[in-house]
Amino acid sequence: MAKKLLILFALFIPAYGLIFFKLQPQFDLTVSVPLFHFYIVTFTTFSAAVISLLLVSSLGAEARPRHILAAAAFAVIGGVFFSHGLATPNALIDHAHPAVSWSAWLTLFGGGVLFAIAGLDGANGLPRWISVRAVIYCAVGGVLIYSGVAAFAPQLLDLIETSFVAPWHRTAIFWISLLLWLFAAFRLWR
Predict the structure, then answer these.
(1) Domain span at residue 96?
(2) Is residue 3 part of a domain?
(3) Residue 113 domain-assigned?
(4) What global pTM score does this model have?
(5) DSSP secondary structure string, the chain?
(6) Structural domains counted in the chain
(7) Among 5, 62, 99, 139, which is least packed by CB within 10 angstroms?
Protein backbone atom coordinates (compact mmCIF):
# COMPACT_ATOMS: atom_id res chain seq x y z
CA MET A 1 0.00 0.00 0.00
CA ALA A 2 2.79 2.42 0.91
CA LYS A 3 4.54 1.66 -2.38
CA LYS A 4 1.44 2.50 -4.45
CA LEU A 5 0.90 5.67 -2.43
CA LEU A 6 4.50 6.70 -3.07
CA ILE A 7 4.07 6.03 -6.80
CA LEU A 8 0.91 8.15 -6.93
CA PHE A 9 2.66 10.91 -5.01
CA ALA A 10 5.59 10.82 -7.46
CA LEU A 11 3.20 11.04 -10.40
CA PHE A 12 1.07 13.89 -9.09
CA ILE A 13 3.74 16.21 -7.65
CA PRO A 14 5.07 17.19 -11.12
CA ALA A 15 1.50 17.71 -12.35
CA TYR A 16 0.75 20.00 -9.42
CA GLY A 17 3.98 21.89 -10.10
CA LEU A 18 3.05 22.40 -13.75
CA ILE A 19 -0.43 23.58 -12.83
CA PHE A 20 0.96 25.93 -10.16
CA PHE A 21 3.45 27.54 -12.55
CA LYS A 22 0.79 27.84 -15.26
CA LEU A 23 -1.52 29.65 -12.84
CA GLN A 24 1.27 31.65 -11.14
CA PRO A 25 3.72 32.52 -13.94
CA GLN A 26 5.53 35.13 -11.82
CA PHE A 27 7.05 32.24 -9.82
CA ASP A 28 8.26 30.39 -12.93
CA LEU A 29 11.78 31.76 -13.15
CA THR A 30 14.00 31.34 -16.18
CA VAL A 31 17.74 31.08 -15.65
CA SER A 32 20.11 30.97 -18.61
CA VAL A 33 23.17 28.84 -17.83
CA PRO A 34 24.01 27.18 -21.16
CA LEU A 35 27.29 25.49 -20.17
CA PHE A 36 25.79 24.01 -17.01
CA HIS A 37 22.79 22.82 -19.06
CA PHE A 38 25.09 21.37 -21.71
CA TYR A 39 27.25 19.42 -19.23
CA ILE A 40 24.38 18.12 -17.11
CA VAL A 41 22.17 17.07 -20.03
CA THR A 42 24.87 15.50 -22.19
CA PHE A 43 26.49 13.63 -19.28
CA THR A 44 23.21 12.39 -17.84
CA THR A 45 21.69 11.32 -21.14
CA PHE A 46 24.86 9.67 -22.41
CA SER A 47 25.24 7.78 -19.12
CA ALA A 48 21.58 6.72 -19.20
CA ALA A 49 21.86 5.50 -22.78
CA VAL A 50 25.07 3.53 -22.14
CA ILE A 51 23.82 1.95 -18.91
CA SER A 52 20.50 1.06 -20.53
CA LEU A 53 22.22 -0.53 -23.53
CA LEU A 54 24.45 -2.53 -21.19
CA LEU A 55 21.36 -3.61 -19.25
CA VAL A 56 19.59 -4.69 -22.45
CA SER A 57 22.60 -6.74 -23.54
CA SER A 58 23.06 -8.34 -20.11
CA LEU A 59 19.43 -9.30 -19.51
CA GLY A 60 19.63 -12.22 -21.90
CA ALA A 61 16.97 -14.32 -23.57
CA GLU A 62 15.36 -15.46 -20.31
CA ALA A 63 14.32 -11.93 -19.31
CA ARG A 64 10.71 -10.88 -19.68
CA PRO A 65 9.99 -8.68 -22.71
CA ARG A 66 8.79 -5.83 -20.46
CA HIS A 67 12.20 -5.66 -18.78
CA ILE A 68 14.11 -5.62 -22.06
CA LEU A 69 11.76 -3.04 -23.56
CA ALA A 70 11.89 -0.83 -20.44
CA ALA A 71 15.69 -0.81 -20.60
CA ALA A 72 15.51 -0.09 -24.34
CA ALA A 73 13.08 2.77 -23.63
CA PHE A 74 15.60 4.40 -21.32
CA ALA A 75 18.29 3.94 -23.98
CA VAL A 76 16.05 5.67 -26.53
CA ILE A 77 15.28 8.47 -24.08
CA GLY A 78 19.00 8.97 -23.42
CA GLY A 79 19.96 8.68 -27.07
CA VAL A 80 17.41 11.17 -28.39
CA PHE A 81 17.79 13.65 -25.56
CA PHE A 82 21.57 13.60 -26.01
CA SER A 83 20.92 15.66 -29.17
CA HIS A 84 19.08 18.18 -26.99
CA GLY A 85 22.17 18.64 -24.84
CA LEU A 86 24.52 18.92 -27.80
CA ALA A 87 22.26 21.55 -29.39
CA THR A 88 22.28 23.82 -26.33
CA PRO A 89 22.66 27.38 -27.66
CA ASN A 90 25.87 29.13 -26.55
CA ALA A 91 27.57 25.88 -25.52
CA LEU A 92 28.92 24.20 -28.68
CA ILE A 93 26.90 26.27 -31.12
CA ASP A 94 26.07 29.96 -31.05
CA HIS A 95 22.50 29.85 -32.34
CA ALA A 96 19.14 28.30 -31.59
CA HIS A 97 18.92 24.78 -32.98
CA PRO A 98 15.67 22.94 -33.77
CA ALA A 99 16.97 19.80 -32.03
CA VAL A 100 16.42 21.49 -28.67
CA SER A 101 12.64 21.34 -28.97
CA TRP A 102 12.38 18.31 -31.26
CA SER A 103 14.51 16.20 -28.92
CA ALA A 104 12.17 16.95 -26.04
CA TRP A 105 9.09 15.95 -28.03
CA LEU A 106 10.65 12.84 -29.56
CA THR A 107 12.13 11.71 -26.24
CA LEU A 108 8.67 11.56 -24.69
CA PHE A 109 7.17 9.99 -27.80
CA GLY A 110 9.87 7.31 -28.28
CA GLY A 111 9.95 6.40 -24.60
CA GLY A 112 6.15 6.28 -24.54
CA VAL A 113 6.02 3.91 -27.51
CA LEU A 114 8.48 1.46 -25.95
CA PHE A 115 6.89 1.61 -22.49
CA ALA A 116 3.44 1.10 -24.05
CA ILE A 117 4.71 -1.97 -25.91
CA ALA A 118 6.30 -3.19 -22.66
CA GLY A 119 2.88 -2.76 -21.05
CA LEU A 120 1.44 -5.30 -23.49
CA ASP A 121 3.60 -8.00 -21.85
CA GLY A 122 1.02 -9.99 -19.92
CA ALA A 123 0.94 -13.37 -18.24
CA ASN A 124 1.41 -15.08 -21.61
CA GLY A 125 4.08 -12.67 -22.80
CA LEU A 126 3.76 -10.20 -25.63
CA PRO A 127 1.23 -10.75 -28.40
CA ARG A 128 2.73 -13.05 -31.06
CA TRP A 129 2.82 -10.31 -33.70
CA ILE A 130 5.29 -8.25 -31.65
CA SER A 131 8.96 -9.15 -31.90
CA VAL A 132 11.12 -7.60 -29.17
CA ARG A 133 14.14 -7.75 -31.46
CA ALA A 134 12.29 -5.94 -34.28
CA VAL A 135 11.01 -3.29 -31.85
CA ILE A 136 14.53 -2.65 -30.56
CA TYR A 137 15.97 -2.52 -34.09
CA CYS A 138 13.29 0.00 -35.11
CA ALA A 139 14.00 2.07 -31.99
CA VAL A 140 17.75 2.09 -32.63
CA GLY A 141 17.11 2.97 -36.28
CA GLY A 142 14.81 5.80 -35.26
CA VAL A 143 17.37 7.23 -32.84
CA LEU A 144 20.13 7.02 -35.46
CA ILE A 145 17.99 8.64 -38.17
CA TYR A 146 16.88 11.45 -35.86
CA SER A 147 20.44 12.02 -34.62
CA GLY A 148 21.67 12.16 -38.22
CA VAL A 149 18.98 14.65 -39.24
CA ALA A 150 19.60 16.79 -36.13
CA ALA A 151 23.35 16.82 -36.76
CA PHE A 152 23.58 17.07 -40.54
CA ALA A 153 20.22 18.32 -41.84
CA PRO A 154 18.55 20.42 -39.12
CA GLN A 155 16.90 22.45 -41.86
CA LEU A 156 14.49 19.50 -42.28
CA LEU A 157 13.33 19.99 -38.69
CA ASP A 158 12.99 23.72 -39.33
CA LEU A 159 11.05 22.97 -42.51
CA ILE A 160 8.51 20.88 -40.62
CA GLU A 161 8.30 23.58 -37.97
CA THR A 162 7.72 26.44 -40.43
CA SER A 163 5.65 24.64 -43.07
CA PHE A 164 2.49 24.64 -41.02
CA VAL A 165 0.53 27.67 -39.90
CA ALA A 166 -0.69 25.91 -36.78
CA PRO A 167 1.82 23.75 -34.93
CA TRP A 168 -0.40 20.68 -35.19
CA HIS A 169 2.61 18.37 -34.95
CA ARG A 170 3.42 19.66 -31.45
CA THR A 171 -0.13 19.09 -30.30
CA ALA A 172 -0.30 15.67 -31.95
CA ILE A 173 3.01 14.52 -30.47
CA PHE A 174 1.95 15.80 -27.04
CA TRP A 175 -1.42 14.02 -26.99
CA ILE A 176 -0.12 10.80 -28.53
CA SER A 177 2.78 10.75 -26.06
CA LEU A 178 0.47 11.44 -23.13
CA LEU A 179 -1.87 8.64 -24.16
CA LEU A 180 1.04 6.23 -24.66
CA TRP A 181 2.46 7.03 -21.21
CA LEU A 182 -0.97 6.73 -19.54
CA PHE A 183 -1.57 3.41 -21.30
CA ALA A 184 1.86 2.15 -20.23
CA ALA A 185 1.35 3.34 -16.64
CA PHE A 186 -2.05 1.63 -16.46
CA ARG A 187 -0.79 -1.63 -17.96
CA LEU A 188 2.42 -1.77 -15.94
CA TRP A 189 0.59 -0.80 -12.72
CA ARG A 190 -1.18 -4.17 -12.65
Answers:
(1) 34-189
(2) no
(3) yes
(4) 0.84
(5) -HHHHHHHHHHHHHHHHHHHHHH-GGG------HHHHHHHHHHHHHHHHHHHHHHHHHH-TTS-HHHHHHHHHHHHHHHHHHHHHHT-BTTTBSS--THHHHHHHHHHHHHHHHHHHHHT-BTTBS-TT--HHHHHHHHHHHHHHHHHHHHH-HHHHHHHHHH-SS-HHHHHHHHHHHHHHHHHHHHHH-
(6) 1
(7) 62
